[in-house]
Design a protein that fits this description.
Elements: H1 4-22, H2 32-45, H3 47-66, E1 91-94, H4 102-112, H5 118-125, H6 131-136, E2 142-143, E3 148-151, E4 154-156, E5 174-176, E6 185-188, H7 191-210, H8 236-245, H9 254-266, H10 271-278, E7 285-290, E8 293-299, H11 306-311, H12 319-327, H13 332-335
Antiparallel strand pairs: 1-8, 2-3, 3-6, 4-5, 7-8
Helix pairs in contact: 1-3, 2-3, 4-5, 10-12
Amino acid sequence: VRSEETYAAYSNIVYNHIIPILGKKKMSSVNRGDVQKLYNDRAEYSVSVSRLVKTVMNVSMNYAVAKKIIAENPAVGINLPKKVKKKEYHARSIDTQKTLTMDQILILLEASRDTSIHMQILFNVLMGLRRREINGVKYSDIDYINRTLKLRRQLGKKINTKKEDFPPKTFTKQELGLKTPSSYRDIPIPDYVFEAILQQREVYERNKSRRRSQFQDSGYVCCSNYGKPRSKDFHWKYYKKLLVDNNLPDIKWHHLRSTFCTLLLKNNFNPKAVSKLMGHATELITLDVYGDNREIIADCVDEIQPFIDEVLPIKEVDKQLEEELLEIEVPAEDYF
């Protein structure tokens, strides 16, 4: 678990739902019957909680097996009660009513130009980066010759740390590893975004020169006038105001990333390549068309369940796909 929020959610499940039922048993003595009783009990309490309990049990027991604490995972093959409807492949439906059209993207880009979150919006809607990934981008991550971006970090809270352990206003801005191994990726930078990065670098250097003694030269693209990194929620008040002032749909910040995914898929980009651009854990991206409604099913799992390994065994990335991925360009003129 790399995310502090995921860690907190897992801890809540363990302490409030698993330990009260299985806490008196040693891990080595937990059997399949115990796991089934746990699932049945939590399904009576809450369907959503039971799903989380199942995920945490599988992940925890797999970890215990890997560390040789137990010989085998007793949760393997244990299903939730039939009344709990199975979520196929942990798929997430993206409602296109919660994404922007090209005309609306144009309006948002222009309206954000004079705000403090212009670069964050570009990284989100034109490159599909997650908000913590955006805040972790540094100028040193940019290949100016090949116009590619190496995603290597995100900013957030370190697990099991306290606010007083860090300097003021840095607790939520620690450099962390990315969400999953597939999140480490090299992606092409659209011409429109590349030009904006160059302009932002000029602003960065001017601020650095003017505030020599106070400037924090950490190299973050999205930073304050004093070089300090942005927090994960910095964009919120500016973003909501932009939507209201420009009569744009009241969609969540994450839905801009969904918009990026939608644009690529609607323009016939290879779903396999789109999956890699998005940093998804697997390649479970498909398009389903129902009448006039287009729905995108995108894999957004935090942990890959064992059955996925059976359905999609790990394969070597073929060179043709790598070349196709690196050749993808999203210049502004194609959009506009």
